[in-house]
Design a protein that fits this description.
The structure holds two protein chains of two kinds. By secondary structure, chain A is mainly α. Helices cover 68% and strands 1% of the residues of chain A. Chain A has a single domain (19-296), classed as MetI-like fold, CATH 1.10.3720.10. In chain B, strands 6-7-8-3-9-10-12-11 form an eight-stranded mixed beta sheet, sandwiched between helices. In chain B, helix 4 crosses helix 5 (136-149) and helix 4 packs parallel to helix 6. The chains are: A mainly alpha, B alpha/beta.
Chain lengths: 298, 336
C-alpha cells in the first residue's frame, strides 16, 4: 500500500495546467490578458494623466495626433480625444471600468443563475418547468435588447448597467447549471449522500455544485467577454456609462464623429484595446472548455 | 424477535406522464397511454438481525429498486418499511435520521459512487461530523480508524477517489457506510464491477465486518454462485415479484419454482463440465407490458391454463420457505 502512495504524483491542478499549455495561442492570449489586467489595475500609478480629473485635462490638448507633446510636457503616444484626454491614460482607465463592469456582471449573473439552475434541477416537476420556461423566454430575446430596455428604464451609471447585464445573462448560467446538475444528481454518490441522511442543501451545494464547476468556469469566461462587449455597445449607443467615467465604449463613441475627418486614433485605439480584451478572454475560455470537457480528452 | 428490517407490501411504480401534446393527442383518440413500470410489485420481506439475505434475479427484475427503497433512497409507491418494528413514515425526525443511518447502502459502481471532488477524509468523515458521531478535533482519528477497519492505509486519506484502484474505491465506499455505525447494509451488486481476484477480497471483508460489528446484510446480486457462498437465505425475484424465498441450502437442494430451477441449472459447475447449457427459453418480458397471471408463464416449461389468468400467491410452506407457483408439491413430483 505504501508504494501505491507514490504512483500519482501529479495533482489535478498540475495536470490541468499542462493540458492548458498544449495550445500556444491560448497561452499567448492568457499572457496578453494578464498584461492588460495588470496595466488596468495599475493605471493610476503608470499613466501620465488622470482622465477623470478635470484639472488635469486641457481642452487645448484636444484632438492631437499620436506622438504629440501635451501642453504640460508629456508625450501622448496614442494621441488625445476631443476633450483633451490622453488616449493612453483614458484607455487604461477605460479597460478598468469595462473589466469591472464585465466581471461584476459576470459574477453576479453566475451566482444568481447557478442558484436558480440548481433549484430547478433538484426540485424538478413544476418548479423546474416554470423556471426553464422563464429561461426559454429570456433567451428568445437578444441580450442587447433586454439590456437596452432595462437601461432605458433604470437610467445610466455603473450600477444600473451591471443590473441590466445581469438580467440579460443569468439565463445562460441557469440553463447550463441545470443540465449539468441533472446529470450529476443522478449519480450514485448523490444517492449515497441521501442515504447518509445529509440535508438537501448540503447535497446540492457540497456535492452537486462542485461537480458542475467545470462548465460554469467556461461559460463564465465567455459570458464575461460578452458582458464587456455588451456594455461597450450600450455606451457606444449613448445609453451606457456617462462621459465623466468613460469606458472603452464611450471612448469609441467620442471618436466616432471625427472618424471621417482623418482623426482615426480617437476611436481606433480604444477599439483595438476592446478587441484585444474580448478576443483574449474568449481564447482562454475556449481552451478552458477543451481542457475541462472530458469528452474532448484524448 | 422483531426483525431488524421488514418490508410490507412494497410497491414501486415508475410513471412516465404524458406531456401536454400527448394529452391532447390522447383526447383526439390517439393510442397513447402513460407508461407505467411496476418495478416492485407487492413485495414483503423480513430480515432478522445477523442474517445475510441474498436477493437474486435477472437484470430489470426490480432487485435494485427494492434495495433502494429499503435503504431509504427511493420513496415507495405503496407499502411500508419497518426498522426495528417501527414504520419509518411514522417516526419523528430524530428517529428517522437514526433509522436512516442504521441502514446503509454499498453501491455497484465504485467510480460513480464516490464524489470525485472530495478527498477520502471528507467522503468518509462528512456524515459522522454532520450527525455528531465525532467532532472536528477527533475527525482525523475517527477516519483513520474507519480506514483501517476496511483495509485502507490511513496515510492515503488526503487523496481523491481517482487515485485509487477499483477494489480500494469499493473499500472507501464501505468505509463511508461504516462510518455512521450502521447495523444493516444493503449491498447492491457490490462486487459485480470488480476483478474476480478482488471480488473474493471484498467478499471476505464483508464477512469479517459482519462478525466484527454484528452486521446484517441484504446482498443483491444477479449471480447465484456468489450468493450461495455468503447468504443464509435467498430470495428470488422475477419482474418485480418474489417467486421463491428459502434457506440457501434448501433452495439449492430442492428448488421448487420453475424459474429457480432454471437459474440453478445454469450455474457452471466443475463436476458437470461437459454438459450443454440451455438458456431459459425466451427473453425476460418487458416490464412495461408484463404477462398476465404468473409473470413467468410464457417461459415456464410446466405452464398450465391457470397460470395465464391468476397470479399465484406467495405461499408459506414449512419454516421460512415461500414459493409463488400454481404447481403444488404433488404435481411437481409427478413432473420430476
Amino acid at each position: 500500500m505504501k508504494t501505491q502512495a507514490n504512483i500519482h504524483k501529479e495533482t489535478p491542478l498540475q495536470r490541468f495546467w499542462s493540458e492548458f499549455c498544449e495550445s500556444r495561442i491560448a497561452v499567448g492570449a492568457l499572457f496578453i490578458l494578464i498584461v492588460i489586467v495588470v496595466l488596468a489595475t495599475l493605471a493610476p500609478w503608470i499613466t501620465p494623466q488622470n482622465p477623470y480629473d478635470l484639472a488635469q485635462v486641457d481642452v487645448l490638448d484636444g484632438k492631437l495626433p499620436p506622438g504629440s507633446e501635451a501642453f504640460t510636457g508629456y508625450t501622448m503616444w496614442l494621441g488625445s480625444d476631443g476633450a483633451g484626454r490622453d488616449l493612453y491614460s483614458a484607455i487604461l482607465y477605460g479597460i478598468r471600468i469595462s473589466l469591472t463592469v464585465g466581471l461584476a456582471a459576470g459574477v453576479i449573473a453566475l451566482i444568481i443563475g447557478t442558484v436558480i439552475g440548481l433549484v430547478a434541477a433538484y426540485a424538478g416537476g413544476r418548479v423546474d418547468a416554470f423556471i426553464m420556461r422563464a429561461v426559454d423566454i429570456q433567451l428568445s430575446f437578444p441580450a442587447v435588447l433586454i439590456a437596452l430596455v432595462l437601461v432605458a428604464i433604470l437610467g445610466r451609471g455603473i450600477d444600473k448597467i451591471i443590473i441590466a447585464l445581469v438580467a440579460a445573462q443569468w439565463a445562460y448560467y441557469a440553463r447550463t447549471v441545470r443540465a449539468t446538475a441533472l446529470v450529476e444528481s443522478a449519480r450514485e454518490y448523490v444517492e449515497a449522500a441521501r442515504c447518509l441522511a445529509l440535508s438537501n442543501t448540503r447535497i446540492v451545494f457540497r456535492h452537486v455544485l462542485p461537480n458542475c464547476l467545470a462548465p460554469l468556469i467556461v461559460i463564465g469566461t465567455v459570458q464575461t467577454a460578452s458582458a464587456i462587449a455588451l456594455e461597450s455597445t450600450l455606451s457606444f449607443l449613448g445609453v451606457g456609462l456617462r462621459q465623466t467615467e468613460p469606458s472603452l465604449g464611450v471612448l469609441i463613441s467620442n471618436g466616432f464623429e471625427y472618424m471621417m475627418s482623418g482623426r482615426y486614433w480617437i476611436s481606433f485605439f480604444p477599439g483595438l484595446a476592446l478587441l484585444l480584451t474580448i478576443v483574449t478572454i474568449n481564447l482562454v475560455g475556449d481552451q478552458l472548455r477543451d481542457v475541462l470537457n472530458p469528452r474532448l480528452k484524448r | 424477535m422483531t426483525p431488524i428490517i421488514e418490508a410490507r407490501g412494497l410497491s414501486k411504480k415508475f410513471v412516465k406522464r404524458l406531456d401536454l401534446a400527448g394529452k391532447i393527442a390522447q383526447r383526439l383518440g390517439a393510442d397513447i397511454h402513460e407508461e407505467i413500470v411496476h418495478a416492485v410489485d407487492n413485495v414483503s420481506l423480513s430480515i432478522n438481525a445477523g442474517e445475510v439475505v441474498g436477493l437474486v434475479g435477472e437484470s430489470g427484475c426490480g432487485k435494485s429498486t427494492l434495495g433502494r427503497i429499503i435503504a431509504g433512497i427511493l420513496p415507495q409507491t405503496a407499502g411500508t418499511v419497518l426498522v426495528d418494528g417501527k414504520d419509518t413514515a411514522d417516526m419523528n425526525s430524530t428517529d428517522r435520521t437514526a433509522a436512516a443511518l442504521a441502514v446503509q447502502m454499498i453501491f455497484q459502481d465504485p467510480f460513480a459512487s464516490l464524489n470525485p471532488r472530495m478527498r477520502v477524509e471528507q467522503i468518509i468523515g462528512e456524515a459522522p461530523l454532520v450527525h455528531g458521531l465525532t467532532d472536528r478535533a477527533g475527525l482525523s482519528d475517527y477516519v483513520d480508524d474507519v480506514m483501517m477497519k476496511v483495509g485502507l492505509d490511513p496515510l492515503l486519506k488526503q487523496r481523491y477517489p481517482h487515485q485509487f484502484s477499483g477494489g480500494q474505491r469499493q473499500r472507501i465506499g464501505i468505509g463511508r457506510a461504516l462510518a455512521v455505525k450502521p447495523r444493516f447494509l444493503v449491498c447492491d451488486e457490490a462486487i459485480a464491477a470488480l476483478d474476480v481476484s478482488i471480488q473474493a477480497q471484498v467478499l471476505n471483508l464483508f464477512m469479517d465486518l459482519r462478525e466484527q460489528f454484528e452486521l446484517t446484510y441484504l446482498f443483491i446480486s444477479h449471480d447465484l454462485s456468489v450468493v450461495e457462498h455468503i447468504a443464509d437465505r435467498i430470495v428470488i425475484m422475477y419482474l418485480g415479484r418474489v417467486v421463491e424465498a428459502a434457506d440457501t441450502e434448501a433452495l439449492f437442494d430442492d428448488p421448487q419454482h420453475p424459474y429457480t430451477r432454471a437459474l440453478l441449472a445454469e450455474i457452471p459447475r466443475l463436476d458437470q463440465r461437459k454438459r450443454d447449457f440451455t438458456p431459459i427459453a425466451g427473453e425476460i418480458p418487458s416490464p412495461l407490458n408484463p404477462p398476465s397471471g404468473c409473470h413467468f408463464h410464457p417461459r415456464c416449461p410446466y405452464v398450465m391454463p391457470v397460470c395465464k389468468t391468476e397470479v399465484p400467491k406467495l405461499a408459506a410452506q414449512h419454516d421460512l420457505r415461500q414459493v409463488s407457483c400454481h404447481l403444488d408439491n404433488s404435481t411437481r413430483r409427478i413432473i420430476d
